[in-house]
Amino acid sequence: MSSIENYKKAFLIHLEKSIVKTEPENLYAPMHYILGLEGKRIRPILTLMGADLFGVDYKKALHAALAVEVFHNFSLVHDDIMDNAPLRRGKQTVHNKWNTNTAILSGDAMLIIAYQLFENYKPTIFQELAKLFSKTALEVCEGQQLDMDFERRNDVSTDQYLLMIKYKTAVLVGAALQMGAIVAETSAENKKLVYDFGIQLGLAFQLQDDYLDAFGDSSFGKQIGGDILENKKTMLYLKALELSDNELKKELFLLYNNTEENPDKVEKVKKIFVETQAADFVRKEIEKYTQKSLESLEKLDITEDKKLELKKFAIDLMDRKI
């Protein structure tokens, strides 16, 4: 079993034995439901890896890893309400399965539980974890607000989009790794470098998600073109607009603003993404941020085998097809 599989297995056991309250049922059942949906568990794995990198038993970081995962799922419950999303990981969203009020309250309780989990650490580590967590949680909210603002705007720049995904996605990846480093009580420089690694990896990860939504492998059962059907202004769309001539720009704008159903919409938009070379641009951006993450990794004061493990994780993440 690889170390990644070990981390995941240990985390899932810890999740099962830690989140055990069941009453009132309508508060805790949605929590068990969302946390039980099969996901990649990237963030808690990174927290455990963050401790292991610096020679500390990764199991010491299990409480912090669970805090990261509980917070992440809290944000998904609330995001799904805001987006009126019917599905999450192929299953009913919490507000659809129960109702909106139940989803809001259950999400609120998850945020509180995430904070409580830090109480398992000694005061100095607790303080550092809580400080990082508060900063990150606020940035995730800022990212979500920017995302909602962008839906109503037609003047979003690629730089503004990168800032939005940095706050909405990348900061939690960076914080997940840094929490492991905090538990390991490593140097301030190592904590900073491992956070920087996570930020760049998080940006590459989100851009890869954008790309795969349009150009991923449908044989894995994933719907292709979901973002296009929802008129999401991803990096592909913004770059295609920027690189289009007037005719293509007009066509793309109409495709995204026409309320009538168009069965050819996804293919037409993808054709524009390819024709304008926006698709090539996004692929290069993914490579750029992956490379930047590996540069931070090289500066870390850890053994070569640990660097190799983290490098493999980053590259595997970028080579995924779904």
TrEMBL record:
Q: What is this protein called?
A: Polyprenyl synthetase family protein
- Please name the source species: Capnocytophaga stomatis
Organism superkingdom: Bacteria
Enzyme Commission identifier(s): 2.5.1.-
Q: Name one Pfam family in it.
A: polyprenyl_synt
Q: Which family does it belong to?
A: Belongs to the FPP/GGPP synthase family.
Q: What enzyme category does the UniProt record give?
A: transferase
For molecular function, the Gene Ontology terms on record are:
transferase activity
> Keyword set for this entry?
Magnesium, Metal-binding, Transferase
Cofactor(s) the protein requires to work? Mg(2+)
